Amino acid sequence: MADKKATLKVDGIEEVLELPVYEGSVGPDVVDVRSLTGKGLFTYDPGFVSTAATESKITYIDGAAGVLLHRGYPIDQLAEKSDYLETCFLLLHGELPSAEQKETFVSTIKNHTMVHEQLSHFFNGFRRDAHPMAIMCGVVGALSAFYHDSLDIHDEHHRMVSAHRLIAKMPTLAAMVYKYSIGQPFMYPQNELTYSENFLHMMFNTPCEEKKISPILAKAMDRIFLLHADHEQNASTSTVRLAGSTGANPFACIASGIAALWGPAHGGANEAVLNMLNEIGDESNIDAFVAKAKDKEDPFRLMGFGHRVYKNFDPRAKVMKQTCDEVLAELGMEDDPLLKIAMKLEKIATEDEYFIKRGLYPNVDFYSGIILKAIGIPTEMFTVIFATGRTPGWIAHWNEMISSDYRIGRPRQLYTGYPKRDYPA
Ligand code: CMC
């Protein structure tokens, strides 16, 4: 029940409309506008800047304060003390696992890492130079054609089996996409490895040579997955929820999330960061690119800077910067020309009045792009890695919605086209 209310006076409507106001556990109050339709009114909020489309208990963000909490736990504490799979459990179940629950969860995920052998034939239908995200949209959606035994969305157990399958199979599919692009054989997952070691193994090892995985690089990979695990009602998560609200199966819903993530304003940004650094090409060109970014007549933006919600700093970027330093030191790459451009750009932009005034700071994608490049992951794979990390968030939101009293998502519009007119005689 709402304790507060808002009143609304609209020209042409005599009565003063009373709207309930709900308080969350933290964060802004929300005005319940659902009764407005009955009065012949819609609200107008392009980009959903002021619209809470759902109630959720999973993730809380305070953009101004740079706070990101998963089930109440701050992201920096999770990055320091937890790991990716434990965070997956937390997102899915609402609490941190006991030692026994964690062991069972890790073992369950390991038991689902292989994909149906027939799925590997799908890859042959794609061009070798296809964008990895194009293949991911296809093969993740195709999982629904293979795992019929977990597709009843009204069965809680089925939903959890699908969640485990998706979390487990995403790195396998991601590595398969990469191997296909370079013409190497697919590598099967290895159960004695951790989640992140396994991913690096499937990416970089071959049947002829199995290199030892560096613990620092495996830890960096784990952090990248963890820091991307969820981010409240962002564009791809909202897409998953919208697709899920129709009753679509979880594999199809996650494929829709992957499609939404692909855009450069969202998950495509880490790839765009590296493309931009390549385009800058030399430290002497940085000033010209910064000037372009500030020029209102020029659509160019500094990729990896700014965020819709964080207008002060991105708490994920802080942790990612630390990992970035560790990885560059481990690989002895502090003098890599591209990475030097990145570091100089970071310094110039963070000291520039234009960026400071608008609250534009390096976001998580700025540093994750640099780390992934240093690890040797090709640029086109960056968004695939974001998608892999984000899968538990998508699934947790989808599951939360299906477990609640939800309705099909159906936004309305301000129509500005022709009124009715007759077809020419
Ligand atoms: N470079 C230069 N100017 C910028 C940038 C940028 N990267 N980002 C925003 N601005 C300016 C923008 O021109 C506007 O200026 P003014 O007030 O003078 O008109 C002001 O900052 C506010 O911009 P906005 O477009 O209203 O901000 P938004 O909240 O709609 O957009 C954003 C957020 C992330 C899409 C945008 O900052 C951007 O395009 N950044 C580059 C792409 C990027 O790095 N995206 C990854 C986001 S983090 C990953 C994720 O969570 O998905």
Describe this structure in words.
- β2 (17-22) and β3 form a beta hairpin.
- This protein has 16 helices and 6 strands.
- α8 packs across α16 (382-402).
- 40% of the residues are buried.
- By secondary structure, it is mainly alpha-helical.
- Helices cover 48% and strands 5% of the residues.
- The strands form 2 sheets. A 3-stranded antiparallel beta sheet has the order 1-2-3, with no helix packed on it. Strands 4-5-6 form a 3-stranded antiparallel beta sheet.
- Bound molecules: carboxymethyl coenzyme *A (CMC).
- Carboxymethyl coenzyme *A (CMC) binds at residues 231, 234, 265-267, 269, 293, 301-308, 358, 360, 363-365.
Hetero ligands:
carboxymethyl coenzyme *A
Q: What strand line-up does the widest sheet have?
A: 1-2-3
Low-confidence segments, ≥5 residues, pLDDT <50? none
| Helix count, DSSP H or I runs of 4 or more residues | 16
- The dominant shape is globular
Q: How do the helices and strands follow one another from N- to C-terminus? A: EEEEEEHHHHHHHHHHHHHHHH
